[in-house]
Amino acid sequence: EWLDVSRFDVASVVRELSEVLGKTFRRQIRVHFDGHAVQMKGDKEKIRQLLLILIDNAIKYSKEPIDVRIRLSKGGVKLEVTDYGIGVPESEIPYMFERFYRVDEARHRSTGGSGLGLSIAKKIVDIHEGNVEVFSKPGIGTTISIQLPRKL
Ligand code: ATP
């Protein structure tokens, strides 16, 4: 897998992307982080793409504000995107990251997704040796939590 690795501030990637997407889609995207910068080693453009996929999904599958959290954890950083939208049934969560998989396809056809986003997101997490957790309840919302090591 080809990676363009550098040291960068992932907190500023989160802030800049949230601002651009908030303005573009006229949605409230709130970034929660106590600190200023979080240096990490990785592929900056791929991490940006990963966040774009998660925030784009949160925009498509909810109407309320979106919360993006940055948390420092032992040796790593946790990036969490929370929406208060349609949610995903527990039984479907294991399949969300498969290529072309869409939950209740008919209902979501209007948003025009391809079902590829999360499979690409998972790949980006994997090549950074991170992991993904999903917390979701239908009608309540979804949190996708990404844990990334700060050194690759
Ligand atoms: P695209 O490839 O354009 O992103 P997509 O959103 O359909 O299209 P994925 O990002 O791979 O594809 O997501 C797969 C499916 O998981 C979605 O079709 C949707 O059913 C479900 N899903 C993903 N994110 C959310 C979310 N935040 N809330 C509710 N359902 C979600």
From TrEMBL:
Q: Where is the Histidine kinase domain?
A: 1-152
Q: Where in the cell is it found?
A: Cell membrane
Q: What is this protein called?
A: Signal transduction histidine-protein kinase ArlS
Top-level taxonomy: Bacteria, Bacillati, Bacillota, Bacilli, Bacillales
- Where in the full protein does the shown chain start and end, and how long is the full protein? 300 to 451 of 451
